[in-house]
Design goal:
By secondary structure, the protein is mainly beta. The chain has a domain of 85 residues: Immunoglobulin-like, CATH 2.60.40. 10% of the residues lie in helices and 39% in strands. It has 2 helices and 7 strands. The protein has a 4-stranded antiparallel beta sheet, with no helix packed on it. The longest helix is centred in the N-terminal third of the chain and has 7 residues. The chain is elongated. It starts with a helix and ends in a 19-residue tail after the last strand.
C-alpha cells in the first residue's frame, strides 16, 4: 500500500480539500427568494431547485385579514433517492397588490410569481370641497 498524496488522490477522485471549498449552502437557505418591485407589478423569484413542476403547489391563504402566499413541494429524485422539499409562507399586502391576478412561471429551478399592482385612482389637480354648516 502506498502512502503518497498523489496515489491517494488518484485512487479516490473525490478526496479533495473540502475545508478550502465553500458551498454557501447556508446563505442560499437563509435567503431563498428575492422580491423585484416594478412600476406595474411585483415579482417574487423563489428558489425551488430540485422540485418538479408537477410537485410544486402555490396557494393563496387568508388568515385574520392577512393574505399569505404558501409555496410547498416535495420531490424524490429517482436516481439518488434524495428528497427535495420547499415550504415557504410570504405575506402579501393586498392594499397595494392585485392578489386576484397572480401568475407563475418556472425556469431553471426558480419560480417567478408575478403579482400586478393595483392601479391607484388619480385625483384631479384641484377640487373644491363643499363646506357644510354644523347645527
Amino acid at each position: 500500500m502506498f502512502n503518497d498524496d498523489f496515489f491517494t488522490i488518484a485512487l479516490d477522485p473525490f478526496n479533495w480539500d473540502k475545508s478550502s471549498y465553500k458551498f454557501n449552502r447556508e446563505e442560499k437557505d437563509m435567503h431563498p427568494y428575492s422580491v423585484v418591485s416594478l412600476p406595474d407589478k411585483t415579482i417574487i423569484v423563489h428558489n425551488v431547485l430540485g422540485i418538479d413542476k408537477k410537485d410544486l403547489k402555490i396557494t393563496r391563504k387568508i388568515e385574520k385579514d392577512t393574505v399569505y402566499l404558501v409555496i410547498e413541494g416535495q420531490t424524490k429524485d429517482t436516481f439518488t433517492g434524495k428528497e427535495y422539499s420547499i415550504s415557504s409562507t410570504l405575506q402579501v399586502d393586498e392594499r397595494q397588490l392585485n392578489i386576484e391576478n397572480i401568475s407563475c412561471n418556472m425556469k431553471n429551478g426558480l419560480v417567478y410569481i408575478v403579482i400586478p399592482k393595483k392601479q391607484l385612482k388619480r385625483l384631479d389637480n384641484s377640487t373644491t370641497i363643499k363646506i357644510t354648516q354644523l347645527d
